[in-house]
Amino acid sequence: QVQLVESGGGLVQAGGSLRLSCTASGGTFSLYTMAWFRQAPGKEREFVASISRSGSTADYGDSVEGRFTVSRDNAKNTVFLEMNNLKPEDTAVYYCARRILSRQYDLWGQGTQVTVSS
Questions:
Q1: Phi, psi at 17, each rounded to 5°
Q2: H helices then E strands: how many in the chain?
Q3: Residue 111: how many CB atoms within 10 A of its CB?
Q4: DSSP 8-state assignment for residue 28
Q5: Using 50, 70 and 90 to split pLDDT, how confident is the model at 66?
Q6: Is the pLDDT of residue 103 over 90?
Q7: One-letter-per-residue 3-state SS of 29-58
Q8: pLDDT score at 80
Q9: pLDDT digits (tens, 9 = 90+) for 86-100
Q10: Signed CA dihedral, 53, 59, 64, 66: sign only
Q11: Is 94 helix (H, G, I), strand (E, B) or coil?
Q12: Three-state secondary-structure class, residue 118
């Protein structure tokens, strides 16, 4: 059974950086577009970024455009989210997900907490 496991979350001061990783165990990772979402307490889940199967195309949510960068290493079955110039409003649980169709995701990780202090 394929699983997604996120890591790299933590506590950081505003203006700082973090790098999240999401590794897939099993499956054919390179066949799927991968995405990152986040959910803050009391708020709806928010799209953060996605990256195409080859890694040639990436899309970002408006709130993170220019600060976050998504990348992947298909040889290591891993997708990354580099987060720079973090703001307190970036505080959330971050999830990676596997996309099967447009806006449809069939596999989610357990999430990793990111907390940005002011």
A1: -135, 155
A2: 0, 11
A3: 17
A4: -
A5: very high
A6: no
A7: HHHCEEEEEEECCCCCCEEEEEECCCCCCE
A8: 98
A9: 999 999 999 999 999
A10: positive
A11: strand
A12: coil
